[in-house]
Specification:
Distance between the termini: 33 Å
Helix content: over 70%
Shape: elongated
Order of helices and strands: HHHHHHHH
Strand content: under 5%
Radius of gyration: 26 Å
C-alpha cells in the first residue's frame, strides 16, 4: 500500500509541475512504515527459525526410517559384517533412539561417539553415520520432493551442510 501511495504522490507532483500548480506532497510517516516492515520481517524470520529448528529433527527421523526400511538392506549388510553386528539388533537400537530425535541435540547424540559408549554402541553409531551419508547423497532429494515438507527449497539447500555435520558430529551444534 505504501508503494502505491508513493507512486500516486510522484505522479501528482509531475502533473502539477507540468501544469505549473504548487505541489503538495502527502507526508508519509516513516515510523509507521518502518514498524510495519519490522513486523513483516519478524513474522517471516520466526517462520524461518521454526524451519531451521525442525530441519535436524526431520532429517534425523527420515534417516532413521531409511535405516529401518528394506531399502537400506544393500547398504546395511556390508557395514554390519564389517563391524560384526547383527542387522536386527542395529535396527532395534535405531527404533528405540528414533523417538529421542527432537532436534539437533538428539540427532547429534545419535551420531557422536563418547567415552561412555560400549563397543557395540560405538559400532551402531558408526554404521548409522554411514547410512546417514548414503541417505543424504542418494535418497534425500526424493524424500524432500515426495514428502509433505514445507520449505522444500531450504531443505534442499541445507542438504550438503547436513552431510558435513554428519561427517563431523562434534561440530554439529547448529544448522544456520
Amino acid at each position: 500500500m505504501r508503494f502505491l501511495k508513493n507512486k500516486i504522490a510522484r505522479a501528482k507532483s509531475k502533473l502539477q509541475s507540468l501544469t505549473g500548480a504548487p505541489s503538495t506532497k502527502p507526508k508519509i510517516s516513516k515510523s509507521k512504515s518502518v514498524s510495519h516492515r519490522k513486523r513483516g520481517r519478524s513474522k517471516q524470520s520466526k517462520q524461518m527459525i521454526r524451519c531451521y529448528k525442525n530441519i535436524a529433527k526431520n532429517y534425523g527421523r527420515a534417516i532413521c526410517s531409511f535405516a529401518l526400511s528394506d531399502i537400506s538392506e544393500p547398504y546395511l549388510s556390508p557395514l554390519a559384517e564389517q563391524y560384526q553386528i547383527d542387522p536386527r539388533s542395529f535396527r532395534n537400537y535405531i527404533d528405540l533412539r528414533k523417538e529421542d530425535l527432537l532436534g539437533i541435540e538428539g540427532f547429534r547424540a545419535l551420531l557422536l561417539i563418547t567415552e561412555r559408549d560400549s563397543q557395540e554402541e560405538r559400532s551402531y553409531k558408526k554404521i548409522f553415520q554411514r547410512l546417514c551419508e548414503v541417505f543424504i547423497n542418494y535418497f534425500s532429494v526424493n524424500w524432500i520432493f515426495s514428502g509433505k515438507l514445507s520449505y522444500k527449497s531450504e531443505y534442499l539447500k541445507l542438504r550438503f551442510k547436513m552431510l558435513r555435520r554428519v561427517k563431523n558430529p562434534e561440530l554439529f551444534t547448529y544448522i544456520k
